[in-house]
Amino acid sequence: MHITLKFIGQMDPGKLDAIRAALTSISTRRPVEMHFRGLGFFPHERKPRVLWCGVESSRNLAELASGIENALEPLGIRRESREFVPHLTLARFDSQCRRKGIDKLLSVANELKSCDFGAALESEFHLYESVLRPSGAEYKRLAAFPFVRDLE
User: Fold this and answer.
1) Based on CB atoms within 10 Å of each CB, which residue in 7, 9, 98, 105 is the most buried?
2) Which backbone phi and psi does 129 adopt, to 5 degrees?
3) Which residues are designated catalytic?
């Protein structure tokens, strides 16, 4: 599972070194605190495409996402137009799946809307490559970036 701080999309492999270099500049004083609570759907329950778990975090998670946007924009990587909403994607549904058994899933998800699923403390983020296959997305970690530093 992962929280997407920035989705880059299709990119020129020749930009990979510049992206890595830009991401090494991202820093904060403290690790990010996260609590995983509740379930929901994007875009909404009536036509769910994604089942997600909510993430309540320390403010520096949004600051990290913003820092990544700022670091990558000079490389020609567009800023996200939507507001940053941290979440864990648990499942994706195609239109056929959305019609089958969705009522039971909605019922269970509603029972777990305020359930606490645990917490985590993170001090690094990762750059992943995702490849979409018929069986689903496959992820390959390309780099890790420790972000907790003394900023004096």
Assistant:
1) 105
2) -105, 135
3) 2, 87
pLDDT tens, per residue, the chain with 152 residues: 789 999 999 889 899 999 999 999 999 999 999 999 999 998 888 788 889 999 999 999 999 999 999 999 999 999 999 999 999 999 888 766 556 677 888 888 889 988 999 999 999 999 999 888 888 788 999 999 999 987 55
Domain boundaries, the chain: 13-146
CA 34, CA 122: separation in Å to the nearest integer?
8
**CB-CB contact of 100 with 65 (8 Å):** no
For residues 112 and 40, the answer to whether their CB atoms sit within 8 Å is no
Give, in order, the Cα–Cα distances in Å from 104 to each of 47, 100, 101, 114, 135.
14, 9, 6, 18, 24
Taking the C-alpha atoms of residue 126 and residue 8, their distance in angstroms, rounded to an integer, is 13
Is there a contact between 33 and 57 (Cβ–Cβ < 8 Å)? yes
- State the CB neighbour count (10 A cutoff) for residue 40: 17
DSSP sequence for 71-123: HHGGGTPPPPSSPP--EEEEEE--HHHHHSSHHHHHHHHHHTTT-EEEEEEE-
Q: Which two tokens stand for residue 141?
A: 């970690």
